[in-house]
Amino acid sequence: MNLLAVERIKLFSTRSPWWSMLAALVLMLGMSTLFAAVLEPGALEVAATQVGYDLALMVVMVMATLAVTTEYRFNTIKVSFQATPRRSAVLLAKTVVVAVLAGLLGEIAAFGSWGLARLVRPEADLRIDTAAEWRQVAGVGLVWALGAVLAVAVGALLRQTAGAVTLLLVYALLVESLVGLIPKVGQNIRRWLPFTHANHFVRGGGQPAEGGQENALSLPFGPWGSLAYFAGVVLVILVLALVTVNRRDA
Q1: What is each CA distance from 73 to 65, 87, 167, 168, 191, in whole angstroms?
Q2: pTM above 0.85?
Q3: Sequence spans of domains, the chain
């Protein structure tokens, strides 16, 4: 518990988390409100109120990356490791703090976006009645929490803000989409990429396609299976980060 408290204090001792949280909220709430305002009421569904969640997730991952790389930049990570020789405990405590913050922020942004959409379009049917609709809103916090864990792990592996942020953003925003353009094999590869599954969890509503080849974006799992797959990928990278942090010099 002491480690968690220390990491919480360290995280909020700088301005970057505050600005990042504000930017993520403004981006998601603004995009969702704008989308609700321009879309016809009959076409506005619960899932559409979360239209800005993926771009806001990028801001959250930048915040999570900075939580690690800033310590390496100013060499404060050495003090942390000297105070707590168990380096894995330090990194895990930081991961838990950032993930909980990202998860709570995601829930606030998701339900805030849904609420604003109802205010802008009171005539639209935006009641949350089904399990799929609850997942499409409440699931944003889960994906943001896992995205934050991934960003912490990548930050610990690369230790440089520019490299870690560039890798995360370019991969999430460009690489997975561009992979699908590769002739013949592109879509088959994309079916197994992590952020494709994260998006499927939040935005998907159906079951896995039979044979997995019904269309270019058919996935092997349903929404919850996609979340488990995304979590598994994140866990593998986190374990790799823990091993690397313990083996190399701070």
Answers
A1: 12, 17, 18, 18, 36
A2: yes
A3: 2-247
